[in-house]
Amino acid sequence: MTARVVVVTGTSTGVGKTVVTAALAATATASTNGRVVVVKPVQTGTGDGSPGDAAVVHALTGCAVHELTTLDEPLAPDTAARRAGVSIPPVADHAHHIRDLAAHHDTVVVEGAGGLLVRLDAAGGTLLDLAVELAETLPVEVVVVTAAGLGTLNHTELTVDALRARGLEPAGLVIGSWPTEPDLAETCNLDDLPRVTGVPLIGVVPAGAGALARADFCAQAASWLLGF
């Protein structure tokens, strides 16, 4: 059986990508008897001792996680590596690692760093490049995590257009943090996001979901991702 590879990108940093990644992993785990792994190719901002995204996902879900490269400063990976004077693996190495994991799991969820075109290596390789390379040999679904409020339509359309330009049709959009009291723009965006992009809205994650205990998070995750 070929593994399901889900690549999670955001329209920008801070849109709720890590919590959505955890929700996707928890939902997949419920249907595949735990044969799910989450991969974070590059994690920056670890120098202050705060947990990386992979650690957050594991805390919320209990899923196995792989963090392939870590860098101290909270910057784009290529910038953080250059400032630290260190070499980081090329995107091709990450693709090889993910393919190896796919051979032993039902679902591999890959979380990017920031947005789709953030550079993950010193040669200019991006999450988009990684997704394209993986799609050469594996079935890849790209989930775009987007903000709820004003400005999200432009950011989301740009991300979707960049994916389509490389031959990848997004599997769906997920609003990463839905407020308890949405304003007019946020309410309209529920309809406008799929309308302007032509991509289905497959999930809405409530604000504060990342603060839930593991059992509560896993029990509720599927209800936030009705289209996954």
UniProtKB/TrEMBL annotation:
Give one Pfam family: AAA_26
What Gene3D superfamilies has UniProt attached to this entry?
P-loop containing nucleotide triphosphate hydrolases
Keyword annotations for this protein, in alphabetical order, are: ATP-binding, Biotin biosynthesis, Cytoplasm, Ligase, Magnesium, Metal-binding, Nucleotide-binding
What cofactor is this protein dependent on?
Mg(2+)
Q: In which pathway does it act?
A: Cofactor biosynthesis; biotin biosynthesis; biotin from 7,8-diaminononanoate: step 1/2
Say what the protein does.
Catalyzes a mechanistically unusual reaction, the ATP-dependent insertion of CO2 between the N7 and N8 nitrogen atoms of 7,8-diaminopelargonic acid (DAPA, also called 7,8-diammoniononanoate) to form a ureido ring.
Q: Where is the active site?
A: K40
Under what name is this protein listed? ATP-dependent dethiobiotin synthetase BioD
- What subcellular compartments does it reside in? Cytoplasm
The UniProt annotation places ATP binding at 14-19, 53, 111-114, 176-177, 206-208
